[in-house]
Structures are given as C-alpha cells and as structure tokens.
Specification:
heterodimer, A: 286 residues, alpha/beta, two-stranded antiparallel ribbon, 10 helices, 40% helix, B: seven-stranded parallel sheet, three-stranded mixed sheet
C-alpha cells in the first residue's frame, strides 16, 4: 500500500515539476554518482519536485522578496543567517532563493538539527533536498568541494525563542567561524524578516519537550488550540537581505575569545541588517 | 614460488581471492569450517582452529611471505562468545605468529560496521573517524576489537607491512554473507520512512583491491574500501531484483528483540544500519593506488542473483 502510494506521489510530483527549476538545477556543479545521488543522499530530481510544489507557498503565500542576492560570491560560501519562527521556514526560503534567484544558481546545503535523522520520512526527504546533519566534518567536506553551506549559528536558541524576543539575536556558536578560517571561505551575512511572525510562540512547554525528546514545545495563539490547523503558518510577507561577503583571516585553532571577536563582527552585521529590514517594513506585515 | 596463507578459506571471498592469486603464489587455505566442495578454487586446505597453539605448526612449516586474514566471523546470528573468541583471540594469535615467523605482509579484513550506525554520522567517513559501534551495540565489540588489535599491531611491528581493510557491504554472485542473502530475497523488509544511503562492492572488485594492496609496497595502514558509490537502500533492493516490504520501525525493534531471544530473525544490532547512513570515503586508497571499481553500483547489485555455483 505504502509502495503504491509512494509511486503515485512520485508520478504526481513528476507531473507538477517546473522545467525551469529542473534546468536551473542542471546548471549547478555537483558530486552526483552514476545514479544521480551524492554521498549525503541529495538528489536534484527530488529537490526540483519539492521546489516546484513549494513555489506557490513561497511566491503567493509568503510573497518572498529577495534583496542583494547578487552579492553571493561564486565558489565556496557560508550563508550565515538569523533563525526564528519555531519551524525552519527561514531555511527553506534561503534554499529557494539560492536555487532560483542566485546567479549562478546554487544548491544550499543546510546544517540541520541532529535529531532529524531519527524521524521517518522527513529525514529521507530533507536528505534528498540536500540538507545534512549539522556536523563540522560534513560542512568542511562540502566547502572543500566549493559548495554553498547554510548555518544558523543560534541553533535552537534562535528558532525556539518566544515572540517577545523576536529579532533579538541569541548567542552565536563559533564553529562556523573556525570552518570559514580553516577552508578560507567567505561568509555572507543574511537577515530574514518575517519568519519570526509565522508562529508567534507565547510559551514553551519544557517538560513536554523533554518527554517528547524535542528541543522545545511551543504554544502559539493557534497551536495546539486549533489542532492540525494551528500548524498553518501566518502568511506574513518575507523579506530576505543578503549582505556583503565578509572575509576573515587567521588561525582556525585560535583561542575561543579571538574567534568570538570575529563572530561578533558577523553578529553585528546581521543585527544591523535586521534593524534596517524592520525599519523598511514598518507596520506592513502582510 | 612464494607462499601465502589465507584464513577463512571455507568462505566465498577467500576463494575468489585465491583463484586470482593461484598463478603467482602457493596458497595454503585455513578455516575452522569444513571446505565447500563446489568452490571455484580447489587448492591446499587445512581445517584448523586459529586460537589453538597447533596453528603455529603451519607457520613453522611453510614460512609464509604474506598472510591474508579474511577469516573474520561476520555471521551476526553466530553465538557472541564464539564470534568473540575467533575474531579477537584468533586474530591476536595470527598476528603474533606473523611477527614471530617474519611474515612480510599481513592484510586484515575488518568491516565498515565498526564506525557504528548513529544519527550523528557525517557522510564520507574517513579512516581516522572514532569507532562508535561498540558504544551503540555490545554485539559489535568483537569487530571493533579485531580492528584495534590490527591497528596496534601495525604500530608495534613496523617491520611487517600491515594493511587493514574496512570495506563496505561486500556482495556478489558467489558470496553468502548476511547482506547478500538479505538482498537475494524475493521480498526484502526495510524500515518504513528510512532510506539511508548504502555502499556495496562486488566480490571481484574487493578481490582486486586485495591484489593491488599486495602488489603496491607503499600500501600500509588502514583503508576504507567503498565501491562505486552510494545508493538509497530502497533502490538497492529494486536493483537487486527484490520487492521492498516497509515495516514501521516502532514495530520492527520490539518484534526483532523478541525473536532474537529464540535465535531467529534479523540481529537487532544491525537494524540501525538500515535506519542511519554509514557512508565511508575510500579517497585515501584510490589516491594511493589509482584504483577504480570494475562494476558500477547497479551492475554490482544485479549480479547478486546470478549465483555462480
């Protein structure tokens, strides 16, 4: 039964796939083997199907607006962004933007939470879309192959924060900076405006999260009151701002304080872009 | 003619390797199991227990130049204490004898399972990656200890060229290991919603890598051997000509746990390899030897059903 359903879903997805997306993904250099997969499990066919299915959500539902994507340099690059909104919609916006609007198009490899591989179906699907477990070895290997890697250095501290802490950057981990120094990779700071309002969390059920082995368990005005309907994100307009690439030099094995000083420069740059974006948005949430 | 000792001679892989080496070396095959009459290579065979002192007589008599220790018990349904005895004490005995009787090259056949199937695993695992298998399942500790024994032997006895191979799943028309038998089934169960990338290498290809390692003097130390590339498990089942049967993981684990008490079913400690990917990198071996596998991913899997005996 599952086999038949998966075949039907595959045929439907094939039918709906946009040819311009397929064409764009074909232009991207990759490490695919003879059957069309790389060793992380990425498959451009599934990514094209996913992007085609999500196109309406991005363009009509969230009306994603992209600024400064031409600043993303060619070759290896680390995309460092703010993180918020409980579910990682901000990551999907960036993947979509980089695949369809970057020149040349790029497959953005996101570093996902380490609990993801435990989840059936979802783990397989995101692996096919090019997302990888957040491990420094994975990141380093991809950068050495000149790929574009997306990191949210706030991790769950950022995505799980409550609504009144929105757009306040949480502590940034320093791992991305060490990798950037080790592999001589430019960092592109990115600010995503709007994702924080998709699920305005008012409380975090920490005990429930511990029982369910989740990083957090939020309560929003619609979740869990409206049941599955509460999972529907608020259709806030999304604005993405790409900053100028930042290049750092120095020892990747330097003391933590030296690395943190460099991280602070990236944090300051993103915070400034967020303030600018919020100012431009004003009260036009939709 | 130089002499070579091959352990695990009652198994298919040793026979494939022996057939390829038979015109260049005088081969002495040993195993604790009886010899299968229908194997392709029919050379000198001695049935012997590697853990016993009497095993030294073979070394004393033959003065081997090379030793291929392919005789690791991989059968997961074999009793744990028996596997541990043969794999750990047997290997220790073989390595000590190699040092004592001045063997020039020792090749130890380990496995990629020692890296462990874990949700945190990165892709393209290299040889210096921590060996997590023992931490996850006690049943795999024999494989980890065998590898560690060989690695420490490599550092202690620098006069002996020690090569440790950690191959991915070896499959083929002759082989009858757990993975090949599993893929030969008409209906192959897999964990619903999990489709990890897996690597397979054909028996002919792995035999070629062993020959290459013997020939190239500069090859020593630990090497991953990965085959032609990674493939999702569901596609591997299809390529091997089977039909996948999805089983929810929340049912599979308790059912297999119960069955394992009766010594039947699929071993619990290998189920995670069908849930989390363990993708290894063999860049080091390829760079050093220029090796390229003869069989592609799909051909490797298709050949499984063409049983050659």
């Amino acid at each position: 039964m599952t086999f038949i359903l998966s075949k039907i879903a595959e045929k439907a997805a094939d039918f709906m796939v946009s040819q311009d997306i397929v064409k764009k993904l074909r232009e991207i250099p990759n490490q695919l083997n003879e059957i069309g997969y790389d060793n992380w499990g990425m498959n451009p066919k599934v990514l094209a199907q996913t992007l085609s299915l999500c196109r309406w959500i991005f363009e009509k539902y969230f009306r994603v607006e992209i600024h400064g994507i031409d600043r993303v340099p060619q070759g290896r690059v680390l995309i460092i962004s703010n993180h918020g909104g409980q579910l990682p919609w901000d990551g999907t916006f960036l993947i979509y933007a980089m695949a369809l609007y970057a020149n040349p198009p790029r497959i953005l490899r996101g570093m996902v939470e380490r609990l993801i591989p435990r989840l059936p179906f979802f783990s397989t699907w995101i692996a096919r879309c090019g997302q990888i477990v957040g491990d420094p070895i994975n990141c380093k290997k991809l950068l050495e192959h000149n790929e574009a890697v997306m990191v949210f250095p706030e991790g769950v501290r950022g995505s799980g924060k409550l609504f009144w802490k929105r757009y306040q950057l949480q502590r940034f981990g320093s791992g991305f900076m060490r990798l950037a120094l080790e592999t001589a990779t430019p960092i592109v700071p990115v600010a995503v405006i709007g994702a924080e309002e998709t699920y305005p969390a008012i409380y975090n059920l920490k005990t429930m999260a511990r029982i369910l082995k989740l990083p957090y368990c939020p309560i929003t005005p619609t979740w869990p009151v409206l049941g599955p309907l509460g999972l529907l994100p608020i259709p806030v307009k999304i604005r993405i701002y790409f900053g100028e690439p930042m290049r750092f030099e120095g020892d990747f094995d330097a003391p933590e304080q030296d690395i943190q000083n460099k991280v602070n420069l990236v944090t300051a740059s993103i915070q400034q872009m967020i303030q600018q974006g919020l100012k431009e948005r004003g009260r036009k949430y939709f | 003619m130089e002499k070579i000792l091959i352990t695990g001679m009652a198994g298919a892989l040793a026979n494939v390797v022996a057939t390829k080496l038979s015109d260049r070396y005088e081969i002495i095959g040993v195993d604790f199991r009886p010899y299968h009459k229908s194997w392709c290579y029919c050379g000198k065979f001695l049935r012997v227990d590697y853990t016993k002192r009497v095993f030294a007589d073979i070394f004393r008599e033959h003065k081997f130049r090379h030793v291929l220790h392919l005789g690791r018990i991989g059968n997961p349904l074999e009793k744990f204490y028996k596997r541990y005895n043969f794999n750990v004490f047997g290997t220790a005995n073989i390595l000590n004898l190699c040092a004592k009787y001045e063997v020039q090259t020792v090749l130890v056949f380990s496995t990629f399972h020692i890296y462990g199937a874990h949700q945190y695993n990165p892709a393209n695992i290299e040889e210096d990656h921590p060996l997590r298998a023992g931490q996850i399942f006690r049943e795999l500790i024999d494989a980890v200890e065998l590898d560690r024994l060989a690695t420490s032997y490599f550092w202690k006895n620098r006069s002996v060229r020690t090569i440790i191979f950690r191959p991915c799943n070896v499959v083929g028309p002759t082989i009858n290991n757990a993975m090949t038998l599993y893929l030969r089934r008409r209906y192959t169960p897999y964990l619903m919603g999990f489709n990890p990338m897996m690597q397979f290498i054909d028996e002919e290809d792995i035999a070629d890598t062993i020959l290459l390692a013997l020939d190239k003097e500069e090859v020593f130390g630990v090497y991953n051997i990965a085959g032609a590339g990674a493939i999702p498990f569901s596609e591997a089942i299809e390529a091997a000509g089977g039909t996948g049967i999805p089983i929810p993981h929340y049912l599979a684990y308790p059912v297999l746990d119960q069955l394992s008490h009766w010594g039947i079913g699929f071993p619990m400690h290998l189920v995670d390899y069908f849930r989390y990917p363990v993708v290894i990198s063999d860049e080091k071996f390829k760079k050093q030897t220029g090796y390229r596998p003869q069989w592609g991913i799909i051909e490797t899997l298709k050949r499984i059903r063409k049983r050659s005996y």
